[in-house]
Specification:
With 151 residues, the protein is mainly beta. The protein is 14% helix and 49% strand. It is built from one helix and nine strands; from the N terminus they run βββββαββββ. A seven-stranded antiparallel beta sheet has the order 1-2-3-7-8-9-6, with helices on one face. It has a two-stranded antiparallel sheet with strand order 4-5. The longest helix has 21 residues, at 53-73. The mean pLDDT is 85.
Length: 151
């Protein structure tokens, strides 16, 4: 994966607080992405000072969608497309392994790798392998199917 400058995730996703579960993209290219996210006490997915399974899965899905989302929000010359509305949703999560739950103030490092992608005129369907860690501890491994469509 090619390292890049820190990129604001809002440039690649339609999500906004309180549903935004990624702070920044630390690297991205056409086939992979890496993100960072700090778990805060006021996060809607925090229960008993831990990020619940749904929050961990939402972080993974948002990380993955940035790979495909960049094609909707930026053209082939990396120029931002204005007034783009994208509908995206998880169509399936497969082979999900949750090996631990992060605590408040933990920083998640999530990496996604594109396995397959099919594009139509205004939509993309893709399968992405994802892994989430805090430091060296793996918290989640999964395969995510996503559907994204320009509105």
């Amino acid at each position: 994966m090619v390292n890049t400058k820190v990129i604001e995730i809002q440039n690649y996703l339609p999500h906004r607080a309180p549903m935004l579960m990624v702070d920044i993209i630390t690297a991205i290219n056409a086939d992979s992405v890496a993100t960072r996210f700090r778990v805060t006490e006021d996060n809607i997915f925090v229960e008993n000072k831990r990020l619940c399974e749904a929050g961990l899965m939402e972080n993974a899905a948002q990380t993955c969608s940035a790979i495909v989302g960049q094609t909707f929000f930026f053209d082939e010359n990396h120029q931002e497309r204005l007034n783009v509305n994208v509908l995206g949703f998880i169509s399936a999560m497969k082979k999900v392994e949750i090996l631990g739950l992060p605590q408040v103030n933990d920083v998640l490092f999530t990496e996604g790798k594109l396995i397959s992608r099919m594009d139509g005129d205004d939509f993309s369907i893709c399968l992405i392998e994802v892994i989430t860690r805090i430091e060296t501890q793996t918290l989640l491994r999964a395969e995510v199917n996503l559907f994204l469509q320009k509105q």
